[in-house]
Amino acid sequence: MNIYFSGIGGVGLGPLAEIARDAGHIVHGSDAQESLTTRELQERGIPVSTDQTGDYLMYCHRQQSIDWFVYTAGLPNDHPELLKARELGLHLAKRDELINYIIGEKRLNLIAIAGTHGKTTTTAMMVWVFRQLDIPVSFSIGATTSFAPAGHFDPNSRYFVYECDEFDYNFLHFEPDISIITSLDYDHPDTYPTEGDYRAAFERFLTQSKQTVMWLRDTFSGLQTPKNTWLLKDSEVMPLRLAGAHNRANATLIAKACEYLKLGQQHAVLAALSSFPGTSRRFEKLADNLYSDYGHHPVEIAATLQMARELSDRVVLVYQPHQNVRQHEIRDQYDGCMELAEEIYWLPTYLTREDPRLPILTPQELASNLTNRNAVHYAELNDELWQHIEAARRDGKLVLCMGAGTIDGWLREQLAKANTTEKFDNANDAPTA
Fold first, then answer.
1. What is the DSSP secondary structure assignment for residue 108, as one 8-state letter?
2. Are β-strands 178-181 and 109-114 bridged in parallel, bridged antiparallel, or unpaired?
């Protein structure tokens, strides 16, 4: 099958393009700009263009007729490529339909990782366990790892491990053999207008899963669970050698799922979990005393700060909120989530998929309810902030930078510049013959 991906550089479609390629399909696509993901896809021999006018799509279709046009949920209805695909009469699909097609075509058993927080790391943990146990596995993770690409199809696998996101109702298109629910907190107000809508979607997802493993505490808001739901108590968290209470909790869910699936002996599963190396953008160490994390919800912030405090008694948080419409929903939840930070540098909100009717909340407004608001500095992504970060690192403090917007890319650019400058200075200091 010949598949064209519009938005191929995204965290959802990028891994799926790799999976489709591994599964024997012809794959190409486009994205608005080059990125690490598009470059990695091109290195694998997958053609990628930044031309999204419809001309590149037409060119590919003339070379060999395209069967499926798969597009990201963020693509507007009047996007030139989507309009061209309709004009050509192509089969239009989002990622869930193609994943279901591959699962059915290859007769795979679906292991779905869902929940508000921790999906990516937990999905990567499950893949890590499979690989440590030498069990073939296909998977889609929302991040790259040191041990695996974001997406992969293994022709010898019986299982497909999938980060099953609730955004755009994606997870409701699947009927997993087993689901792991990492946590539940109201999120994605652009998809679910009320907390009741969000809870109802998860209730429906549970009924579609043959078996579910989750925490009893996540049923507190009245979530109705079917009989095939394995509810764990907080006292059942296993004492694994992993940093972060939330990581130990998510690893426990995996251990219970492996027990249900009869994947290896428990001691082997626990040994694999204890050696988990982590993923990119999830408390990722970029340099000494400098970490980057994708988290942007108060619950994620509190959990990641707790993990940071296991490594250092002095933690500085640099935080970039994500999406103004989301800030209107969660602004009252910030109160105590940053108490473990010695200092906080609060950046303007990264804007994406916004409701123009909502006023943009300022950093001062968002931080007004913090119990430790005296620790807050209002900052921008500029040289001044980088100097503060460097000074904190020199003082032996752990600097944690959190957000799903531009903060990670900016951070890596600053590090690259600093490393280049250091090499240049060292070269100038070198003795001459």
1. P
2. parallel
* pLDDT tens, residue by residue, 106-145: 999 999 999 999 999 999 999 999 999 999 999 999 887 8
Pairing of strands 48-49, 151-152: unpaired
**Can you tell me the distance from the alpha carbon of 187 to that of 192, in angstroms, rounded to the nearest whole number?**
8
Query: Which runs of consecutive H residues, i.e. helices, occur in 242-322?
Result: 245-261, 266-274, 298-311
C-beta of residue 369 within 8 angstroms of C-beta of residue 341: no
pTM (predicted TM-score): 0.79
433 band by pLDDT with thresholds 50, 70 and 90: very low
> Looking at domain 284-423, which of 3.90.190.20, 3.40.50.300, 3.30.70.1150, 3.40.30.10 is its CATH number?
3.90.190.20
What whole-number distance in Å separates Cα of residue 158 and Cα of residue 341? 44
- CB distance 366 to 327 below 8 Å: yes
Phi/psi-derived region of residue 54, left when phi > 0, alpha when psi is between -120 and 50, beta in every other case: left
What are the phi and psi torsion angles at 92 (to 5°)?
A: -95, 135
Region 67-72: mean pLDDT is 96
106-274 classified as CATH 3.40.1190.10? yes
Q: What are phi and psi of 280, to 5 degrees?
A: -70, 145
Structure tokens given for 125: 């943990």
Rounded CA separation 128/145 (Å): 10
Residue 416 tokens read as 């690259």
Neighbouring residues of 252: CB distance < 8 A, sequence distance ≥ 6? 232, 236, 237, 238, 240
Count CA atoms closer than 13 A to 62's CA, side-chain side.
7
Spatial CA neighbour of 411 closest among 293, 277, 244: 293
Spatial distance between the Cα atoms of 50 and 89, rounded to a whole number of angstroms: 23
Q: How confident is the model over 331-358, as pLDDT tens digits?
A: 999 999 999 999 999 999 999 878 899 9
- The answer to whether domain 2-94 and domain 106-274 are alike in fold is no
